Amino acid sequence: MSALAAQQRTLAALLRRGSSIADDAEASALATGNARLTGAAQVEIYREQFFLRHVDALREDFGAVAHLIGAEAFEALARAYLATHPPRTFSLRDLGAELPAFIGEPRARDLARVEWAFVEAFDAPSLPALDASDLATVTEAEWPALRLALQPCVRLLSIAYPAHDYRASVRRSEAPPPPAPRASFVAIYRGPDSLHGLDLTPAAYALLAQLAAGTPLGEACELASCVSPADFAVDLAGWFRQWTTLGLFSLNAPRQASRTSSGGS
Amino acid sequence: MDWFEVISENFMVAGGRPHETLARLQDSYAVVPHGVSLAVGSVEPLDEEHLRQLRALCDRIDPPWVSDHLCWGRAPGVHLHDLLPLPYTREAIDHVVERVKRVQGTLERPFALENVSTYMAYRDSTMQEWEFVAEIAERADCGLLLDCNNAYVSARNHDGDAARHIDAMPADRVVQIHLAGHTDKGAYLLDTHADHVCEDVWDLYRRSLARCGPVSTLVEWDDAIPSWDVLAAEAQRARAERAAVLAQVIP
């Protein structure tokens, strides 16, 4: 191994240490120090910055989790996470991808899932949106086989706590009480000017989840209607009006589905 | 404002709001991507996916040049997301020169390296930072982004002479100048981009302009961001300082 490679391996390990290296012999062997700082204390500056930078990045993406569990607990959580999930990609944007799964406590985990969905919705690509006029070209016979694709920014979550409401409250600088258990369903998406969370009924969630999985509309409706038959019959048309108005579907899917359908598949 | 610099990696994403924002900015201003994660000095192989996405970003916005830092930041299994200094050695020069040539070959547009603020000095270093930077620029045939604040911070942290750094830069390779504020931590200065440019750095700026001529200047203020008026006033001062120096050195 070259001297440069050895130095970088040693430094990378030192900078990820969970405690101070200001008296570390390896760090001291690398840096000269000066009249104000020993060599090891110079390297310690970089170790401190490693944790400051990455804990801050996680706090920025998971601010509601930090609010829920408190600053001290969040710092401990972030440091434990970094110890087992070191940053591996060139972008800090990816740092928190595994944090929801890392959190054991269900309420904080649900909240982390919601917050990560917002991160993903922020920079997911946009496809041309499908609107009501696009659907007008679909014949009645084609409807059951129609496949509707969600915009890449849409994230559907089924969670045991109303974490989306809690996050919204925290972002309004309120001090909400910790959310009590309540089955919740939410679609997180990017609108023209900001990110949004749309509360869904269980049947609406089931329908969108089936469509997202590529299930044809007819079959998706049958499966979703089993969740809540009464609500489903009443709300179906209204849901589609709302979802197309919000731009949750992308444009090209129904035409592709029509072609697939007419091809006999 | 005349132009903007964006952190490359913030826009090397699939799409969404970053792409929309960048497109709006481009409608009115020249935009230059400035990277923080290429880790051109790392011993780890260059991140081909990073380069591919950076090339795609450049193809999208067609900047006059693209820049990143003369540092390392990747090691096996970890990206440290820091601008870590290199030892000023012949081995490091050879390593960086080869990597910069590969980066330029991929990007196919002018590429500039920025001097970083440093908080440690390697026992292995065998030359001054300015000798290290200048030789890499010459041998790799790349541009330089001269950060006056970084030169000042590093000089203060290592009891060096920032003016000598400025004077040693190959002037014809400097394509851009950075100005920024730093934070005095007592035993060292920390490059925070969270304050006004200090008077000593304005001195270095004037010195740089006198040597390098009419190169583009950017004020970095991306933490503890002040009101637009304060930020614009800082940029205006840079514009005025630049005009005054250039009026003297360019007949």
List keywords for this structure.
heterodimer; A: mainly alpha; 3-stranded antiparallel beta sheet; 13 helices; 6% strand; disordered C terminus; B: 251 residues; alpha/beta; TIM Barrel; 9 helices; 11 strands; 20% strand
Short description:
Chain A has 265 residues and is mostly helical. Chain A has 13 helices and three strands. Chain A has helices at 3-15, 25-30, 39-61, 63-69, 71-84, 99-102, 106-123, 132-135, 163-171, 202-212, 217-225, 229-246, 252-262; strands spanning 155-159, 184-190, 195-199.
How are the SSEs placed, and which strands pair?
The complex is a heterodimer of chains A (265) and B (251).
Chain A: H1 3-15, H2 25-30, H3 39-61, H4 63-69, H5 71-84, H6 99-102, H7 106-123, H8 132-135, E1 155-159, H9 163-171, E2 184-190, E3 195-199, H10 202-212, H11 217-225, H12 229-246, H13 252-262
Antiparallel strand pairs in A: 1-2, 2-3
Helix pairs in contact in A: 3-5, 4-5, 4-7, 4-9, 7-9, 10-11
Chain B: E1 3-7, H1 8-11, H2 16-28, E2 30-34, H3 48-61, E3 66-69, E4 72-75, E5 78-84, H4 90-107, E6 111-114, H5 129-140, E7 143-147, H6 148-157, H7 162-168, E8 174-180, E9 183-184, E10 189-190, H8 199-212, E11 216-220, H9 228-249
Parallel strand pairs in B: 1-2, 3-6, 6-7, 7-8, 8-11
Antiparallel strand pairs in B: 4-5, 9-10
Helix pairs in contact in B: 4-5, 5-7, 6-7, 7-8, 8-9
